[in-house]
Amino acid sequence: MLKTASPHRLFFALTLPKTMQRRIVQWRADNFSPEAGHPIAAANLHLTLAFLGEVSAAKALILQQQAGRISQPGFDVTLDDIGHWPGSGVVWLGCKNPPRGLLQLAQLLRSQAARSGCYQSPLPFHPHVSLLRGATRPVAIPAKTANESFRASHFSLYESALVRGRTRYNIVQSWPLVSSERTSDGV
């Protein structure tokens, strides 16, 4: 729950497993020069589903209630694509063939956010994990990605906060994705 009345910078995202975060950071260090851009801290690596921007505590509460009503099966995500957006200066890992569940969850959260007055980019959703920021000059992109996979079993609302001059992403609340496995009694 958000504690202060001032607006909060929020987004919905999938959390990457900590072991995967560490492997991606090592892969990034092995494949990009320090001049390529500003590396994202391992703890901040995530896959954004819907960016909300500056949100009041009241609006955040409504968005949290809406998110709590989502009932969708979990899905597997494979980060097997890589690219560079020079305009925004982002080097990213993404999905060549995003799972339908990922696209549906992002669309649902983005639609709910838009209906609640949160601006949503008109650009199509491109699932990715930002690796580097400030990469405005050409960057040598490795031929092979980290090719990491994980099971998305929940999604979270994050707050972006500036702490001692560094951006930190803190989970405000998480919601489970429904298990698609059947129980032994067939229910």
TrEMBL record:
Species per Swiss-Prot/TrEMBL record: Yersinia alsatica
E.C. no: 3.1.4.58
Alphabetized GO MF terms: RNA 2',3'-cyclic 3'-phosphodiesterase activity
Active site: H46, H128
InterPro entries to which the protein is assigned, alphabetical: Cyclic_Pdiesterase, RNA_CPDase
The entry's keywords: Hydrolase
Name of this protein: RNA 2',3'-cyclic phosphodiesterase
Domain of life: Bacteria
Classification via Pfam families: 2_5_RNA_ligase2
Catalytic activity line of the entry: a 3'-end 2',3'-cyclophospho-ribonucleotide-RNA + H2O = a 3'-end 2'-phospho-ribonucleotide-RNA + H(+)
PANTHER family in the record: RNA 2',3'-CYCLIC PHOSPHODIESTERASE (PTHR35561)
Enzyme class: hydrolase
HXTX 1, short sequence motif: residues: 46-49
Known role: Hydrolyzes RNA 2',3'-cyclic phosphodiester to an RNA 2'-phosphomonoester.
Family in the record: Belongs to the 2H phosphoesterase superfamily. ThpR family.
